[in-house]
Please model this.
Amino acid sequence: MNYQKLDAALATALNDLQDLEESSLAVFIHTEPILDSAATAVLESLGVSGVSSGKDIFTATLSANAISQLSEQSWVKYLKRSQQLGLVNRRINTGKLGI
Model:
């Protein structure tokens, strides 16, 4: 595994995993913009959808082993963990506006 290509959140999540084969981590895969057929085949074999030449960011839910495999590819720039964002429910007090 090339940890230099992983963001801190992804590296931490990988350390906490029990099952290395379970596809449980949502990630952004940042690649070189022009992928050859071999790179496209690797991404598709890992279940990444929407792979086409000219794109350079892909999303997928991957296992630790798949992330390790991708981190070793020369055409992968970096991998970043995708996290579910929660809504912030707060009320803004505008008070009375005066002139």
Remarks:
- Helices lie at 8-16, 37-45, 64-71.
- The mean pLDDT is 84.
- The longest strand covers residues 25-31.
